[in-house]
Design a protein that fits this description.
The complex is a heterodimer of chains A (195) and B (567). Chain A has 195 residues and is mainly α. Chain A has nine helices and no strands. With 567 residues, chain B is of the alpha/beta class. In chain B, helix 1 packs parallel to helix 13, helix 5 crosses helix 13 and helix 6 packs across helix 12.
């Protein structure tokens, strides 16, 4: 770890603002602060993940569902690589409403699969898994078959949180090609619009 | 039983609250030579711990939504610290059907740490709107009284903008504005077609170095708190110069409980709870300036009962807590396929909008009185939790197609927020809840709130205008609002816009107002209120700039009176 901490950088930024002789240029300081955060992150990458809330079985389901919602493609990794399941597990461990929605939703899905295919979700064939996901991924299906409404509601929340987990990750932000979160001297304005 | 601890010295002034109004009073009074004790109910700001400038969502385990996802309702983990709709141990109540929402920040600088930096002058007509339409009350002062103080505040804190000569949106002393974003150019094109003005916004953010503070570095994160103080907050721009005088005593974790009345009918000091020890302490002062935020100040006055003022200090008019208003708020969003063509680029800019729509129909006959402005946001912002909720609801599904749609649609949504003038009404006020005290033993507020027909019509007009602008800019308006129910036309619950004002309004007549035109209590001449409470109207201009101008003006008056020995 560098001898200068993020703490020092921010302090210098603040002192600079107050008119001290020590004039840290915000852009340089920001870049440094950012680099240090990255280093800290890299050092803290854990090995295998032990779920905080979900059972091993539920967590295995969650992995499959998250990756189904945002899969790896030719441009970027998927929801698992982005840490979306860990994110959902962390929030669920802290929030009883999430526990009911996701814990209960996963059981609902197993029950549905058992009724339909005589197997829990993870033991269904890929074609069967796709069939149930195609059912619960659209509100209109719950209108034609009201027994699906809880599953549709569960999947909608899971889809939102999976997107949250993916698009707040490093790979998700890169996938969107967001540029910014940095100090610039002048705001460049809007580039020419391609015709 | 613990003994009440009295301060050994008598300060010239005790200021309660360190936000826009209190911070300004502390600065002007100490620079004018007075000693000031400044009470703040929260702790100090610690930029290195509290400000999350440049932090990515993935740097936080909770990705910005907080423990259990619960920070999301308070605008997320990234917001500058200590603001919340609910504070543990410090409740407030709402009368049935009111559902008032009260956002409080217990910290040095208060809500100026996170505010939107929108710094709009009230216009001449805003001070005399009753004369124009017969509704509400006129101010006892005019634009000409306040204008010099707008000049002073803008020159000191720094506000960018442009001269536009629009009567309902007076020009100020402006720094140059930043260049528009793509999304804003698109909205301006739509507005141009409709004959609606779309002009550079007016924000308290430095585009040039000013008064020892460096210029903005365009990270778009003003709401997180700025480590370089390139935007305005009381904690970084008003409190430091006050401390530098050597005459300011800043007392944090100090929850004011009661203003104490002396036998001469003047305020003699303030009783407060030291939250760190849960003990009661007293400050003696020759004058008291209350700036705890409009509703908190009303609560303090109402809780300061005596045989002289059985209904609360300075409340012989019965108007303390009355005339409460918030801004009318309604929002919407549009999808703009043209933005899909934009190459990736840095869209951050300053925190908040670079362009906005000032009220433009002031010279027409509308089916509601007064007006609103429109704030614009969206485009290629830093991704955050919740960003794709609406898209997911629209397109549903999952897998490769969902991911491709998110990629394609990122940055193509622009949001609109209408902010309009609410008329005070008799059904909207705050009072002391007879049954509830907070953890410090202080009786809490109970809110009554209702929107009138004028506000609902305004919200309907906002929705129609948003849709028209979106369509004129070749977009698709995505928002659907109900025409009935608790929130017709998307009107927000009272308090949600965090522009609550009016609870100790100024006026010429002591029978119908609490304060005179210098924010001085009619009943108690060494008592002043300098937050949003004195405001007589709540026009479509966010109140902070006016709060500061009035506080500076009141502080100059207090200094003058102190010199003459009449306080």
């Amino acid at each position: 770890m560098s001898a200068i901490s993020r703490r020092d950088v921010l302090r210098n930024l603040a002192i600079g603002a107050a008119g001290s002789a020590l004039r840290v240029i915000p852009a340089e300081a920001a870049a440094l602060a950012h680099k240090m955060i990255e280093t800290e992150k890299a050092a803290s990458v854990a090995g295998t993940y032990a779920p905080k809330y979900f059972s091993a079985h539920q967590y295995s389901m969650l992995l499959v569902l998250c990756e189904s919602i945002i899969p790896r493609d030719e441009k970027s990794g998927g929801a698992i690589e982005a840490g979306a399941p860990e994110f959902i597990d962390l929030l669920s461990s802290e929030n009883e409403d999430f526990q009911a929605v996701f814990g209960g939703g996963l059981m609902w899905l197993d029950n549905l699969c058992s009724d339909r295919y005589d197997h829990v979700f993870l033991e269904c064939t890929p074609a069967q898994q796709k069939e149930v996901l195609d059912l619960i991924a659209y509100r209109s299906n719950a209108k034609s078959d009201p027994t699906l409404s809880q599953g549709v509601a569960f999947f909608a929340k899971l889809r939102n949180l999976t997107c949250d987990g993916f698009y707040t990750s490093k790979i998700g932000i890169a996938d969107l090609q967001y540029i910014g979160n940095t100090a610039v001297v002048e705001f460049p304005g809007c580039p020419p619009v391609p015709e | 039983m613990a003994q009440v601890i009295r301060s050994p010295k008598t300060y010239d002034v005790c200021v309660i609250g360190s936000g826009a109004g209190g911070g300004m009073a502390a600065k002007i009074l100490t620079e004018g030579g007075l000693t000031v004790a400044l009470l703040e109910a929260g702790g100090p700001v610690d930029p290195e711990k509290d400000y999350k400038m440049f932090v990515w969502p993935y740097d936080l385990a909770h990705r910005g939504v907080g423990v259990g996802g619960r920070a999301a309702e308070n605008f997320g983990e990234f917001l500058a610290p200590n603001g919340a709709w609910k504070i543990e141990g410090e409740p407030y109540s709402s009368a049935p059907g009111a559902n008032f929402q009260w956002f409080r920040s217990r910290i040095v600088g208060g809500r100026t740490n996170h505010w939107g930096r929108i710094a709009l002058r009230f216009s001449p007509i805003d001070f005399k709107s009753k004369t124009r339409d017969g509704l509400g009350e006129d101010w006892p002062i005019s634009y000409e009284d306040v204008s010099p103080y707008y000049d002073k505040v803008e020159s000191y804190i720094g506000v960018f903008g442009t001269k536009e000569n629009i009567p309902s949106a007076p020009d100020g002393i402006f720094l140059p504005p930043p260049k528009p974003r793509c999304s804003e150019l698109l909205i301006k094109k739509g507005c141009d077609k409709l004959g609606i003005p779309c002009i550079p916004s007016r924000l308290a953010i430095l585009t040039k170095p000013m008064n020892g503070r460096p210029a903005c570095h365009y990270c778009a994160q003003c709401g997180r708190g700025c480590a370089t103080a390139s935007n305005f907050s009381s904690s970084q721009v008003l409190i430091p110069p006050a401390l530098a005088t050597g005459r300011l005593t800043l007392i944090t974790h100090a929850m004011a409980r009661e203003i104490l009345l002396g036998p001469d009918g003047k305020a003699k000091g303030v009783s407060y709870i030291d939250k760190t020890t849960s003990t009661e302490k007293r400050i003696s002062a020759r004058a008291v300036v209350v700036a705890a935020s409009a509703c908190e100040s009303a609560r303090l006055l109402l809780n300061s009962k005596s045989h002289v003022f059985p209904e609360g200090l300075g409340n012989s008019s019965g108007q303390v807590g009355r005339n409460l208003t918030d801004s009318v708020g309604s929002g919407g969003e549009g999808y703009f396929p043209n933005l899909e063509k934009m190459p990736p680029h840095n869209h951050d800019g300053t925190g908040g909008m670079h362009m906005y729509v000032p009220w433009w129909k002031y010279d027409r006959q509308n089916d509601f009185p007064r007006g609103y402005h429109i704030e614009v946001g969206g485009g290629r912002e830093m991704p955050e939790a919740g960003m794709f909720d609406d898209l997911c609801e629209e397109v549903e599904g999952y897998g490769a197609s969902l991911k491709a749609t998110c990629r394609k649609r990122y940055g193509t949504t622009i949001g609109f927020a209408g902010r309009g003038e609410m008329l005070a009404n008799p059904g909207t006020y705050c009072e002391i809840d007879p049954d509830v005290v907070d953890r410090w033993g202080i009786p809490v507020l109970r809110f009554h709130f209702q929107w009138g027909e004028s506000e609902l019509r305004q919200a309907r007009d906002m929705q129609e205008t948003f849709k028209a602008i979106v369509e004129a800019a070749d977009g698709r308006y995505l928002t659907r609002t109900a025409i009935d129910g608790p929130y017709p036309f998307g009107i927000e619950a009272g308090g949600k816009i965090i522009h609550e004002v009016g609870t100790a309004r100024m006026g010429a007549d002591p029978k119908t107002s609490v304060l005179n035109s210098f924010c001085q209590a009619h009943d108690v001449k060494n008592l002043f209120v300098t937050d949003g409470a004195p405001l007589v109207t709540n026009p479509d201009k966010n109140p902070t700039l006016t709060i500061m101008a009035l506080s500076w003006r009141a502080s100059d008056y207090l200094l003058d009176q102190a010199k003459k020995g009449s306080i």
